[in-house]
Specification:
The chain contains 2 helices and 6 strands; from the N terminus they run βββαβαββ. It has 129 residues and is an alpha+beta fold. The strands form 2 sheets. Strands 3-6-4-5 form a 4-stranded mixed sheet. Strands 1-2 form a two-stranded antiparallel sheet. Strand 4, helix 2 and strand 5 form a beta-alpha-beta unit. Helix 1 packs across helix 2. The radius of gyration is 15 Å and the shape is globular. The chain starts with a strand and ends with a strand.
Amino acid sequence: MFAMPPVDGLAPGNGYSHVVVGEGRLVLVSGQIALDEKGSVVGPGDAGAQARQVFENLRRCLAAAGASFADVVKLTYFVTDMAILPQVRVARDAHIDAKRPPASSAVQVAGLIRPELLLEVEAMAIVPW
């Protein structure tokens, strides 16, 4: 993965890259939610706990595909409240290189598949050949 330098005419990204390029095998990870291996919600009402579980689930999915967070080029966040993004960022920063952040999008949604869930995150990775 290679984060491009700042793009002329755009304000710098705050914790994300506007453009990321890569070459290799594409890995797409479906949106992950804060469920443990038994299907129970982790941290009802606790955005930090849910974010940590979501990123652990993403890590497991990436590993199953032979990838890691170092290969992630794009993260998409679906949150029920934008106010939780700082807590999500803490969980994310425990897994990614904050000096080379992936491209990212964050969307506030009215709800997720279960009412106690606060966020869902999907990932795109490119594993070098």
